[in-house]
Each structure stands twice: as C-alpha cells, then as structure tokens.
Design goal:
alpha/beta, nine-stranded mixed β-sheet
Length: about 350
C-alpha cells in the first residue's frame, strides 16, 4: 500500500537558490513483514522523500532513478542539507533533480519509518541489514514502481547496503557508489566500539528494558562513542584548540543529539549490523563500482588495507582513498560531495552506456 503526501519545503534555499524540484514525502506500508529473526510486524511503514520524476524508455524501463541510503541514526532528509543537495541536486549539478528521480528512504528503525520508539520499545522486531535492504527494494519496486536504478549510492550504513544491493540485485542498477565502509563483516575496533555502545545502554538500570519514561543517562555515553567514531582530528583541533573550547564543543554536541536520539532506537540501529558480511559474494557485482573512503576515517582506517584488497575481487570496481585535508571530516566526509564529486562524475560517465536509450517523461 502506498500513501503519498506532498510536503512543500520552501525553506530549503541553497546558495541563494532553491532546489529545482520540490521534495515530496510519503509512506510505503508493507503488510505482514517477516523479519529474518522470525519476528513479524502486521504493518511496516517505510518513510521516504523523493525529488524529480521518473523517466522511462520505449520499453518501460526507468532510466533516471537514483537511490541514496543514509547512515546509522540518520534519515533520508539529511541529504537535503545544503552541503549535499546544494552540491549535487541543483540545476546543472551531477544529479540535477530536474533530470533525475532521486529516492531518499528512511530505513527501518530510522526517521519516519517504523521504529522501537513508536511504542513497542524493546518488543520491536530485531531487524538486521538484510531486512533493511529487503524493505528498501520493496519500496523502490512495489511502492514507487521503479524497475531499474541509474545509480545506487549510500553513506556509512548506506554504503554497506550498497554492497548488498550489488550482490542481491546485480541487474537492478547501472552503477554503485559505496561511501565510507568496508565490504567485510564488522570486526576489530569497529565491532568493539559498537559493542561498547550497545552494552552501555543495555546494562544501564535506567534503560529498564526499553520502558523508560525519560532518556537514560547511558544515552549520553552512547553519544560519546558516536562523537569519537565520527571525529576528524584536524577539524576538531581547529575548532577546539583549547581545553575550554573542547569542553564547550562536547557539551553542545551532547545537548543537541540528546534532543533527537532515542536510546532504544539507537541500540537497535547499531545492533542491526550483526548480519552484515558481503565478502563472500563480491564477484557477483556486475556493474561499475566507485568505492570511496577517507584516510582520516576512524571507523574504516586505511591502514587495514581491507578496501584495497577486496576491491580487486569486484570485476569493474575502483577504490579511491581520499587524502586527509583541512576539508575532510573523517567518517563524515561521505556527506561532503564537494570533496568527491569528481569521482561520481567519472562513474556516471563510465556507466552511461548502460542507460543509453532515450527517455520518455512520465
């Protein structure tokens, strides 16, 4: 079932000019959604935002759809920020919303989609990445009636979902662009900081198995982990060169994040990565892949050389390690397309032949 309501976002002005297309928001309802855990929801709601309109060729194939997937604790609307949409979606930009049909889903447990804080709390089904990708695919194909994607890209958790899309649906897209992740099971330090965050919430007496009346103090501890994991040393040193500035920045970040985060939603979101491991099937990916990490990424440190090794198994894959500069933001570099858009342009050019039929507007 698809219910779609137009949401006018006139306040979104980027660099003095508005988006070329008005964002639209809607909800796709999936009845009796079965999770890999064996649990079930009578109705799973997947919220989404779109820009532009789908175009089809003479055979009915959609030729201009772009799926962009967000990271842990984010939502699709984060890509409407000036730093992202202002660089990619405006008139004349690489993903000009007057030419492309841009799909920005909120994953299970995130944004406006079904999540524990809606009321089930810790009784909410224990979803994993496989469930999230299944719901994304059903939104695209059943909800939005898109039978092909010009591009699939994602940041952080969305990066990991991109690898899964390439393996599970190798004929569903023309190109893949994973940003800020590794194509192996989450392990080493990456697994450890996530485990620390999970345990800090689950072992907190104030959490009360999700039945708290106000956010437990452990949410602040969890936020500490998020701040460090997403940090960039050069940037933090530049904005917090004294002990006082550092303390002020930390306090401000905690205050702002506690306003929007829920402890159980965050716990579930971080735990959902437990079933992620695309490493066995990388050879199944058939389309061009432009895979990008940043050298100052705490979560995906380049010295592991995992990205460099695994990309050799992708038939048409290329890996780019962005060097550390004053403009990079560690893990968060994934949402700064001004730094990496040249590689997106190369990917779109390389994969253009996959989508060469002249479009018809619908």
């Amino acid at each position: 079932m698809l219910t779609c309501s137009l949401r006018i976002l006139t306040a979104l002005l980027f660099a003095g000019c508005a988006l070329s297309q008005t964002p639209q928001s809607g909800d796709f309802a999936i009845s009796n959604f079965h999770f890999a855990s064996g649990e079930q929801l009578p109705q799973l709601r997947i919220h989404y935002t779109t820009l532009g309109r789908p175009q089809r060729d003479a055979t009915g194939k959609v030729t201009n759809a772009v799926l962009i997937m967000h990271g842990t604790s984010g939502s699709g609307k984060q890509f409407l920020s000036p730093q992202f949409s202002g660089v990619l979606f405006q008139n004349g930009q690489l993903l000009d919303a007057s030419k492309y049909f841009i799909i920005l889903p909120d994953d299970i447990g995130h944004g406006g989609s079904s999540k524990p804080s809606d009321g089930l709390h810790a009784r909410f089904p224990h979803y994993g990445y496989n469930d999230m990708v299944t719901a994304e695919y059903r939104l695209v194909t059943e909800g939005l009636h898109v039978n092909h994607l010009r591009l699939v890209m994602g940041t952080s958790m969305g990066c990991m979902h991109s690898w899964m899309w390439g393996e599970r649906y190798p004929d569903a897209m023309d190109a893949l662009m994973p940003l800020a992740c590794l194509p192996i099971a989450i392990s080493g330090r990456n697994r450890m900081w996530r485990r620390m965050l999970i345990d800090s919430i689950r072992n907190d007496p104030e959490w009360q198995n999700g039945e708290y009346k106000q956010q437990p103090r452990s949410l602040t501890t969890a936020i500490y982990f998020l701040i460090i994991a997403g940090s960039a040393p050069l940037y933090l040193q530049s904005i917090a060169p004294t002990p006082e500035k550092a303390d002020e920045y930390l306090a401000h970040q905690v205050e702002q994040r506690r306003k929007t985060l829920d402890a159980t939603d965050l716990l579930y979101a971080v735990e959902s990565s437990r079933d992620y491991d695309p490493s066995a099937d990388l050879e199944k990916i058939a389309v061009p892949v432009m895979y990008i990490n940043s050298a100052d990424d705490f979560i995906n440190p380049p010295e592991l050389e995992i990205a460099q090794r695994e990309i050799t198994r992708v038939k048409r894959g290329r890996f780019v390690l962005l060097p550390i500069t004053e403009e990079t933001r560690g893990h968060g570099t994934h949402t700064l397309p001004k730094i990496w858009k040249q590689y997106l342009e190369e990917l779109l050019t390389e994969s253009a032949h996959e989508n060469s039929a002249p479009p018809e507007q619908h």
